[in-house]
Amino acid sequence: MSNTLLQNTLQSPQRLFLIVGIWAATAGTACSQPGTKLLKDVTLIDGTGTAPMEHVDILIAGKRIKAIGKNLKANAETVVSLSGKTVMPALLCAHAHVGTLTGTTSSAENYTRENVLRQLKRYQDYGVAAVLAMGTDRPVIFNGFRDSTVAGLLPGARLFSAGYGFNTPDKNPGSWMNLLLRPETPAEVPAMLDKLAAVKPTVVKIWVDDHGGGAQKMKPEIYKAIITEAHKRNIRVAAHLYYADDASALIDAGLDIIAHSIRDKEVDAALLAKMKQKNIIYIPTLTLDEYQFAYAESPDWLNDPFFKSSLEPGVFEMITEKSYGEKIKTSRDYQRNMAANKIGMRNLKKISDAGITIALGTDSGAFPVRAQGFTEHLEMEMMVESGLSPLQAITASTKNAAKALLIDKENGTLENGKLADMIILSADPTKDIENTRKIESVWKEGNIVSKGPLN
């Protein structure tokens, strides 16, 4: 302070008070860290697989987690007391579909930028931070839209894509997915892979299934060519499959991801060893089979608002019609689907016990009954019913799913330096997995973006 200012200040007590006040306000602003948030006294499930940590503080700086610990001392701009609340990473779904649903229909005509964005917002309301659309996307998302969602520049879950999947020349089933690649010979595969690689897919999706004997199955020489050409371009391959023998043959051919449960028989020791050796990622999609027979009766979640809020308009009325349930019961696949569900759940437990990576994926969004958002929570519940612990189910749905999406450096766990994508819950889901439904808020890059689907 200059001599003149000091003299003037000493002559005016009011002026002294004003200068001291300005200094104090400025000092306080300097000590407070702009853009920082301190979440106090939470139960933290960090997604790494370790047990929940109680009475923990989380310091967020901008988009990222800066520190985690007890009784953190930080001059955060915002301090939030969350005593009694549980914080966990946002969910990640490694097998979904977006854009094709509108009301009770699923078709290519429904696929618009606006529809995709609407459904990504729905996923976000349910605490899902990212989804991998498995092979049914269309050109509209590859003009910067997909990349903008991944960068967090658009509202809703981040969208990862397998682009256009590979199926057989037989266009039925799956005719509505009319941009699928359908090679008749291995010689056609390289040019098709060039077309697909141009949109930079996260994985290549292949369908290797006869749909219960109702369709031809992709020939081994075709899928071998696809896997070989994909690997030449450093792209992994995920397979829609059903049979254990196909899983074994596909792994021998170099498959990276099994995108549905093995459901025809229980996996044996040889297949488990092969999956473990080849570092296969296993995405069970247990809910796919559940939805194929559940509405023959009234599942316990049918009238739950958490479920009903996830449905497209008209779907609840459709699935609760008496004729709808009767049609399921009289279907030739009814008993087969129930048996497949039980086998899939037993296989999940065996595969998990063998130390093979399990990642959350649901096939939600492929058809109207596979509700987007709710299904991810139901899938975790079915994992626990299969014999996994709640913590294992959560790890599969966060850390492991991030690995499947190749985003584990930024997402999937709540650790220093990672993006602050989180769900705040009113109860601990390691004590009851259904507590993942008790969403108080959803955070994306350090900011609240939703209060859950019921608010």
Q: Explain this structure to me?
A:
This protein is α/β, with parallel strands linked by helices and 455 residues long. It has helices at residues 3-11, 13-31, 113-125, 145-150, 189-197, 220-232, 244-252, 269-277, 286-293, 305-308, 315-319, 322-329, 334-353, 374-385, 390-397, 399-405, and strands at 33-44, 53-61, 64-69, 76-81, 86-89, 91-96, 101-102, 105-106, 128-133, 158-161, 203-207, 236-240, 257-258, 281-282, 357-358, 422-425, 439-444, 447-450. The strands form four sheets. Strands 1, 2, 3, 4, 5, 16, 17 and 18 form an eight-stranded mixed sheet that branches. A five-stranded parallel sheet has the order 11-12-13-14-15, sandwiched between helices.
Summarize the structure.
The protein is α/β, with parallel strands linked by helices. Helix content is 35%, strand content 19%.
Structural class: alpha/beta
Q: Using only CA atoms, what is the Rg?
A: 25 Å
Q: Segments where pLDDT lies below 50 for 5+ residues?
A: 1-30
Mean pLDDT: 92
CATH class: Alpha Beta
Tally of DSSP helical segments: 16
Q: According to CATH, what is the topology?
A: TIM Barrel
The major beta sheet can be summarized as:
8 strands, mixed
Count of domain modules: 1
Instruction: State the shape.
Output: globular
Q: Helical content, roughly?
A: 25-40%
Within CATH, the superfamily carries the name Metal-dependent hydrolases
Number of strands: 18
Q: What share of residues are in beta strands?
A: 15-25%
State the separation between the terminal residues, measured CA to CA: 55 Å
CATH architecture assignment: Alpha-Beta Barrel
